[in-house]
Amino acid sequence: MARRPGRPKSGDEVLSREQILATALQIVDTEGIDALSMRRLATTLGVDPMAIYRHLPDKAALMDGMVEVVFSEFRVPRLEGVDWKGQVRAFAASYRALVKSHPNLIVYLITHVEASAPAVLAVGEYLSTALVQAGLAPLQVVTATNLIIDYLNGFALGESSGMLGKPEAYQNFYTLLNSLPAERYPSMRAVYGALNEATLQADDARELELILAGIETWVCA
After folding, report:
1. How far apart are CA 185 and CA 199, in angstroms?
2. Sign of dihedral through CA atoms 15, 20, 26, 27?
3. Contact at 8 Å (CB) between 148 and 127?
4. How far is Cα 85 from Cα 135, in angstroms, rounded to an integer?
5. What is the pLDDT of residues 107-160, one digit of tens each?
6. Measured between alpha carbons, how far is 155 from 206 in angstroms, rounded to an integer?
7. CA 96 to chain centre
8. Which of 99, 108, 78 is nearest to 152 (CA)?
9. DSSP letters for the chain
10. What is the pTM of this model?
11. Cβ atoms within 10 A of the Cβ of 167, count?
């Protein structure tokens, strides 16, 4: 009797869901989302594509599986005796570390909202807990959570450009500003003229502190 497509030959190692997802994630990490297809994945694994479909019925299921794997890695250190702002800082540091580990997948999730719901749940619980401890009302918790996540995701998108934090990041901006008549943008000339490029380099801690200060005034209002 002929072997059915997708079934391993006698004596072959059985393909697992975990192995499929790990290989898919490796492709995405090294080459980007566009490099991933069921056929490419099957070729890398050395199996018939039908073997993958037995574990993951379509590419959407494959994406959901990778999100599950990546966000199962998300850990925020337990900080005893630390206030809510310290908890949010720890959350931000852990999220940034996750983005750096899997930038291609995270940037894809940021720009494809329909695929990001499992990730939102994975990271939202810790952040919501910290903001509830701050004394925020439910709607304020949702608003503050969205603000912090949007900021961190915006930072991730900026980093994905390859320019954020590099010495030349502001070079073109300064060149353009200084090439225009002095009276055209007086406020920006005054502000940026008082700063140098080194001072302006990306600093997520400085911006996060401003967000936390705003949330704190909301709590006290």
Report:
1. 21
2. positive
3. yes
4. 12
5. 898 888 777 777 778 788 889 999 999 999 999 999 999 999 999 998 888 877
6. 13
7. 7
8. 99
9. -PPPTTPPPTTSPPP-HHHHHHHHHHHHHHH-GGG--HHHHHHHHTS-HHHHHTT-SSHHHHHHHHHHHHHHT------TT--HHHHHHHHHHHHHHHHHHSHHHHHHHHH-GGG-HHHHHHHHHHHHHHHHHTT--HHHHHHHHHHHHHHHHHHHHHHHTT-TT-GGGGHHHHHHHHHS-TTTSHHHHHHHHT--HHHHS--HHHHHHHHHHHHHHHHH-
10. 0.80
11. 9
Q: What is the largest CA-CA distance in the chain?
A: 85
Tokens in use for 135?
A: 């004394």
